[in-house]
């Protein structure tokens, strides 16, 4: 089906009138609550504690009767105690960074993978991508959901996929030229970096076939988008998702006015992070998401920690689903370094395993060129101080590689003298983020 | 054996972040205690350094530096005299190699009429024994407690 010149992936759902969407969403919500109450010990106990049963869900507003879920629950019930299907129905696992030493494990049934790619297929179609396109996926493939998420969606809409993953930028540029790549999935900062490397190679991205950047996984600004569009001639499309939800799921349409969140897949709320009460359209608050059709790993009123606003008016493209604006911050201290979520608590946990350093630490984040750089300052304990520079450097490297393997992103380590890092009464402020985005 | 321990020189090893003012803070601390610096070197790590100093009053120096917040410790080194003329260092290092002494680090200073090489080896007791056996002249710890300018 065609709207203007664009092929719409699922016109029946994407253009569904509000009232029908309300009905559909309520039906899905009721089904989900019924299923969880009857088939999951965890959710049943949670609902009992909140004094709610499936019979209490009559309208969409009743979603607020359900208790919130947080990252803490995911950590507490690691690795698989929140899964609600028999093991044999699971066809995939992914993992994301946890808040301490353990990652968060996400499981998928075949239907979960299907809904995930359906959601992103609608998104990619909404910017005009289709079988004539070549999509280079420069997100990491592996436990991180970014690579395979775009891969499946792009294949689903019939585009050709170049599964480049991260790194080897010169080869990425070569493939854009040789294969006529039209869209690239990446972090916005990698897109900028790629532009810089292309300049050095004497290649103008503007003169290539590359027309769309499917950008996300880290905060970015309209200023950065303008720069990417003017300099590289690439339309910067803001994308959103998270591994807990499945992976990258949603994006803006070609009107670039907010990310469409499909109501049959997700029930979106924006709340006041302090009171937990819902706020109205256009009001800033924390995003809370309920995934309506997930099987293996249900997500109910999950507090994302991201601050944004919701727009419920119909989009200029005709799609009736709500849109979220740019993420403007976090309610917690989570950092995003080169697209990877990093919690200061993870750093703390990792440092504890090194007896040579104290408990105080400081994280400094900078943007060098277009790439994020993280430095962790730690206090060397007097008993670990040695006159031997080789040993001290080896210690520094050992801590660095431990951090890297636990955070999935590299960090420079700086040893400092005991007592020199700032001390805090009350809430510690251990992060100095000097990035200008 | 016991008399060889007098050749163990107590070097102060000071951890210092690589930023302006640290070296000034160290030397100010010495000045305030009227401690004289006889030899001095800085080893550069990554973002930090280790300042190595031979002073006339090492105990007092250690105490003072700790007081003003430095991470500091003693490291035993030896001080070998060499001739202050072309070839002096060669003669010494040749001797060290013949004695099978592996140097971790070293730094020198001029101490008329001779010159002195401060040497850190893995095991200072064995090092002292070996170089003495090869006829080297070692300075003893007492030597540094005098004001060497007037020697």
Sum up the structure in keywords.
heterodimer; A: 437 residues; alpha/beta; 4-stranded antiparallel beta sheet; 23 strands; 31% helix; B: 151 residues; 6-stranded antiparallel beta sheet; 6 strands; 32% helix
Structure description:
In chain A, 31% of the residues lie in helices and 25% in strands. Chain A has helices spanning 11-14, 18-39, 41-49, 71-76, 110-126, 145-156, 169-179, 188-201, 222-232, 344-352, 389-407, and strands spanning 2-3, 6-7, 90-96, 104-109, 134-137, 160-162, 183-186, 212-215, 235-242, 247-251, 259-260, 266-271, 285-291, 302-308, 310-311, 323-324, 329-330, 335-337, 340-342, 357-368, 371-380, 412-416, 431-433. In chain A, strand 8 (212-215), helix 9 and strand 9 form a beta-alpha-beta unit. In chain A, helix 7 (169-179) packs across helix 8. Chain B has 151 residues and is an alpha+beta fold. Chain B contains 5 helices and 6 strands, in the order E-H-E-E-H-E-H-E-E-H-H. Chain B has helices at residues 22-32, 58-67, 88-99, 124-133, 141-145; strands spanning 9-17, 37-44, 48-55, 71-83, 103-111, 114-121. The radius of gyration of chain B is 16 Å and the shape is globular. At the A-B interface, helix 11 and strand 22 of A face strand 1, strand 3 and strand 4 of B.
* Beta-strand residue fraction of chain B: 35-45%
How far apart are the first and last residues' alpha carbons of chain A, in Å?
39 Å
- Please report the total strand number of chain B as a whole number: 6
Structural category of chain A is: alpha/beta
Could you give a quick summary of the protein structure above?
Chain A is of the alpha/beta class and 437 residues long.
